[in-house]
Amino acid sequence: MSIIYNESTRTFNLTAGDSSLCIGVFSHEYLVTYHYGKKIPDTDFSSYEYYSPRTASFNPTRDGSTNCFTMDTYPLEYPSFGTGDYRRTGIRIRAAEGNTATDFRYSSHRIYKGKPSIPGLPATYANTDDEADTLEITMTDTVTGGELCLVYTAFNSINAITKSAYLKNCGSKPFVIEDFCSSVTNLSSCDFSMINLYGKHNSERNFSKNPLTHNRQSIISRRGASGHEQNPFIALVRDGSTEETGDTYGFSFVYSGSYEMGCDVDYYDSTRITVGFNPEQFSWLLSPGEVFYTPETVHVYTDKGLGEMSRIYHRFYSSNLIRGRYKTEKRPLLINSWEAAYFDFDEEKLVSFAREAKDLGIEMLVMDDGWFGHRDNDRSSLGDWFVYESKINLQSLVRRVHGLGLKFGIWYEPEMISEDSLLYKAHPGWCLHVDGREHCECRHQYVLDMSRPEVVDNIFEQMCSVLSSCEIDYLKWDFNRNLTEVGSTALSPERHGELYHRFMLGTYDLMDRITTAYPHILLENCSGGGGRFDPGMLYYSPQIWASDNTDPIERLAIQFGTSICYPASSMGAHVSFCQRTGFDVKGDVALWGTFGYELDPTRLTEADKALIKEQVADYHRYYDLIRYGDLYRLIPPWDGERRVAWEFVSPDRSKALITTVTTRYVTMERFFLRLRGLDPNKSYRNSIDGKIFSGAFLMYSGLNLSFMPCGDMQSYKVYFEEV
Questions:
Q1: How is residue 698 annotated by DSSP?
Q2: DSSP secondary structure letters along 516-531
Q3: Which residues lie across from 304 on neighbouring strands?
């Protein structure tokens, strides 16, 4: 098994791939962290003393002495609030009496094969019970009657460990959970920089790296969604690390709502990392006998740098998070109607798009916003999910598109409602609102109260009526505004702190019901572009629209940043009519992701059509290499002032595809690009001129691209295959 318990030392060693997490039951039944990092076999840490007791004289103790264990100086694996640990803690409970002193201590544990699911929440999974082992540690707080279970799963063949928790009220009185982290992680030093992915609409997941200091550094969402502004992911890289070397720790939160992730460095230069709900927007009243579950955190450690950490996440999420038919089945190459027609379309226009797309080799037409209610602009009809029959005949349209040999997709925004809609007129209280307060409007729409089962039932039934009426192959699920006036007439006053999370549980429930009822449909998530690009959404939709910004030069930063945690197969990327570059650059950049088109195919020139046919051929030629290959960020935007470069290498290291984009050309510049991930003992043929090089030459001497035809905003691809 990958989890070993040493009964004599009361120590657990969780081994995942080449990494180990070692924790133990310490003084007074507190759980402490001994080691997280490179794989070690040890289970005896009896000589491990963290700090001199003399430095703890101003810290509370459990036995009245200054020369003993103190809560505030030891790396507690899951610290409680209000009983001696003054750092950021994992859990805070307000007891029925009103106090928040909480003290959870070890009581028991069990180890078993496989990985449990989390009721009502997305989570990673083990494909077989032999793929992973799980440790559950039960801790109790005798005063409140709270029984806390920490759930750890270690995956045998990959450096991934998941953590989550659940809390049961085993007492006789209700209490309120005011803070509940999914994970707490302790590292014994602070010589790290924190990486996070920040941005805004049309500029998501930009790379940021800052040294840890003696304070709290955190990222947070208050939007009721993971958001464009901060992705629910952070990494710690040890000083001196590079893309391919050095200790690197990743923390990815499998949740799509408001959250907080952060690092605290204490006086002793120790670092504590916490991941969980945003405590400003979370509380939960737990009655006797009830259980509450947190989402999970996915932890990855490697000593081979940020690039290897990314590749571990790519493999793990592709294999153990993404589900369904399109986990392995080839995705259809699509064209979306939005930038081609916006709201101005009818059946004949869409069929004309389909005819042109068919001639280009495109495999699916997606009808975007504007097909339902009486929607001719963005001011009406959200919530009225019935066909706008004076605009289109859906059955006829789908039949004609399928008759051309194309698949057909449709757009929804299930969590939203327009004031100008039949649903709003019938149920004005079904949107999030606070009585007496004016609605804060955004994009001319409001947010449905997804915490109400009757709302979820209504939207599900409306969607099923359409999806069952004809053969729909693809569904784009959009979410175009964040939460305001977060109130609900369905919740009592003492439960309003639960609303943000209940909203997310309602959304997950609806997504689960749709994907269960229609397992053949390819679901693509979207939120004003990449505003909910997170692991929680990937559990339901194997691909997510990366950004509404389809400019290929702007997309470089977006896609490089996204690749820090997420696989290429998840990254929705399209070619559009952006004027800044030619179609060749647009295609080379979009080829990195799921690939498709966002344009009017009837406006293309013959030259454009010829180039698109080449791109379609490249999509099929390189599909497996990009989908299943390892990504190497050769020159990321944060390191390259004038160009970027990336590489995909097949798992057997027999093939490689290198792409460069020059953003600012310098005349007569020498440019040698060193490849990565190849076999130094193999020989590879260059697709450009047929020359053969050893893998060693390409990696250690470098490919000479000094004279490639690449001026400002131009791209260049080179394919290598083993000979």
A1: I
A2: HH-TTSEEEE-BTTBT
A3: 246
Q: Where are the domains of the chain?
A: 3-320, 330-415+456-482+508-609, 632-722
Asked if residues 259 and 232 have their Cβ atoms less than 8 Å apart, the reply is: yes
Q: Domain 3-320: which topology?
A: Beta-galactosidase; Chain A, domain 5 (2.70.98)
Q: What does the block give as tokens for 286?
A: 């737990």
Helices 499-517 + 453-467 axis angle, to 10: 30
Helical axes 394-403 vs 347-360, angle rounded to 10°: 20
Closest CA to 253 of 307, 183, 311, 318: 183
Catalogue the E-assigned strands of 370-434.
407-412, 416-417
CATH assignment, 330-415+456-482+508-609 = 3.20.20.70
Q: Is the pLDDT of residue 666 over 90?
A: no
**CB of 33 closer than 8 Å to CB of 79:** no
**Mean pLDDT score, 480-493:** 96
Q: What are the tens digits of pLDDT across the range 464-486?
A: 999 999 999 999 999 999 999 99
Give me the percent of the chain exceeding a pLDDT of 90: 90
Rg (CA), the chain: 27
What are the respective helix, strand and coil percentages of the chain, to the nearest 5?
25, 35, 45
Q: 53 pLDDT exceeds 60? A: no
Copy the structure tokens of residue 645: 């470069």
- β pairing state of 630-635 and 596-598: unpaired
Average pLDDT over residues 332-348: 96
Return the CATH class of domain 632-722: mainly beta
CB 458 within 8 A of CB 429: no
- For residue range 103-136, list pLDDT tens digits in order: 999 999 999 999 999 999 999 999 999 999 999 9
In eight-state DSSP terms, residue 331 is: P
∠ CA 151-152-155 to the nearest 5 degrees?
145
Is residue 515 within 8 A of residue 534, CB to CB? The reply is no
Q: Could you give the 3-state DSSP secondary structure of residue 683?
A: strand
User: The pTM is what?
Assistant: 0.97
pLDDT of amino acid 644: 95
CA-nearest of 290, 291, 29 to 164 is 291
Residue 529 is encoded by which pair of tokens?
């572009």
DSSP state of 699: I
Per-residue CA distances from 592 to 546, 586, 625 (Å): 12, 11, 10
The two most distant CA atoms of the chain are separated, in Å, by 85
**Amino acid in the structure at residue 471:** E
Torsion from C-alpha of 222, 226, 228, 230, nearest 10 degrees: 80
| Rounded Cα gap, residues 680 and 496, in angstroms | 60
Tokens of residue 696, six digits: 């060693």
Q: Could you confirm whether 359 is annotated as catalytic?
A: no
pLDDT reported for residue 660: 95
Q: What is the pLDDT of residue 46?
A: 81
The confidence band for 209, taking pLDDT boundaries of 50, 70 and 90, is: very high
Dist. CA 226–CA 230, nearest whole Å: 7
- Taking CA atoms, 12 is separated from 15, 134, 297, 678, in Å, by 10, 12, 19, 37
Is pLDDT larger for residue 55 or for residue 720?
720
478 is catalytic: yes
Residue 636 has pLDDT above 70, yes or no: yes
What confidence tier does 669 reach under pLDDT thresholds 50, 70, 90?
Answer: confident
Active-site residue, selected from the candidate residues 141, 179, 369, 548? 548
Q: How far apart are CA 79 and CA 71, in angstroms?
A: 8
Contact yes or no for 618/626 (Cβ under 8 A): no
Catalytic residue among 478, 534, 588, 618: 478
Do the Cβ atoms of 499 and 491 come closer than 8 Å?
yes
